[in-house]
Amino acid sequence: MENYSTSDHKVTRDWPKVPSSVSAISKGFFVHWMLFARASFIVSRVSLIILLTLPVNPFIILCMVENIGIIGAGAWGTALAILLADKGHDVSLWMYEQDLAEETTRTRENRVYLPGFKLPTSITVTTSFEIAVKNKSIVLAVMPSHTMRTVSKQFIPFLSHNAVIVCASKGIEINTLMPLSEVLKDVLPEKFHHRLCFLSGPSFAKEVAQKIPTAITLASFDSAIGKKIQTVLSNSYFRLYTNPDVIGVELAGSLKNVVAIAAGVLDGMSYGHNSMAALLTRGLAEMARLGSAMGANLQTFSGLAGMGDLVLTCTGGLSRNRTLGVRLGKGEKLLDIMKGMQTVVEGIMTTKAAHDLAEKFAIDMPIVNEVYRLLYEGKDPKLAARDLMGRQLKGE
Is 153 labeled as catalytic in the residue annotation? Predict the structure, then answer.
């Protein structure tokens, strides 16, 4: 028994009894061991309390720091770079334009594609594939879908043997009608095929950069790899859900851009909410029909990659595809609109690919067909709407 004096009273503390048969050395060791055990317990409890009071998820903070390369510095690539750097990862951001790369390095801001947001100092801006990709455990492909094949071929030689490739682009290769998963499998060595993941869902780059709560989908061929990337990318305002349906997630993310152009046309012609509700519902049905024919899970089209992204892109003011449609609905010509646009409108090429896929699989896609005629045949928007409404009556 040991006594501790305070100013007012005496505190008596009972220590564990040491067996009398134990030597003096053993007694000392036993007492020190008990003190160490008590101290360790107190430290672990204090550490847990500190972690639980932090403003973000402690398990995300404890995530291993990764070396990450991002190929493509448009708005989405830049927003993802900021998000990952804020989590403590080392990020290299590849830009195509040398002058923009130099300006972004100097100002720490991508003034062309994502103005108003500062890049953390842990982001290295480069035009070198070697710097962007070599020794990186994760590589995000965020370039326009029509450049996926040619750009991927250029960075493949620098890939680490165990790198995970995350495709954050949406689209269908127009000449081959391949989804981007098939394009990447076509150019990547076979050892990387199961290490592919695909990011899709309702996510405007600007809102992610503003740290507005966002939830999207990550599809993967390997569930363990998918869960790893889910942890790397998720934080307090950016939440990922995994999904094994790669083709479904890809098609949903691509085809919704076609419907978004049609949605913009309706707004451009000042049609009302009735028209928009009908378009979104029937557009989703067309997306699901083609997806089913190509082996997708129909449930995917009811989730974030399907309905979620469709609602965002068809109604959100930041949607490039919807904006294009609005201007078409107001009577502007496609070529005139494209002359003044700096960013790629993925829905234009996806419309042709979707139109050709519908023919290939013999799928009825009247909305896709009318958008195709608007873009590639110069059809009048009001005539397109009239033809859609005048089709032969049928069951839902």
Answer: no
